[in-house]
Task: structure prediction
Amino acid sequence: MRGEVTSQREAIVQIDVTREPTDTSSAEHLRAILDTGFTDFLTLPHEIVTTLSLRRLRSTKVMLADASTVVLNVYSAYVHWHDNWRRIQVLEASGPPLVGMALLYGSELTIRAIDGGHVRIEPLV
Result:
């Protein structure tokens, strides 16, 4: 998996997310920011959750970086990761999609931290 570092100092990758791996024609092709301070799998904004008709699993209390807490809805989805469709939990949150450490776990992450620098995510096998 490849991506790039933007002039805003964000490491971005392209990911495909869908409700069911058997219906990949409805997958959303998204630009997501890598967030190593986020310990879960993925966040998606309400609009994308609605477009994909994701199945709500529950609500959960989440602590943000500023130590405040919010309650977010948790959904089931599939993400195309290391050439396979992987079932994950998605938190519905405002802002751009974020890839967290739970999704990165088991991968080697390389970032050339310069404008336009390469981002590479490879499985550790």
In short: The longest strand covers residues 69-81. Strands lie at 2-5, 11-18, 28-34, 42-44, 55-63, 69-81, 84-92, 98-99, 107-111, 118-123. Helices lie at 46-52, 101-104. Residues 46-52 form the longest helix (7 residues).
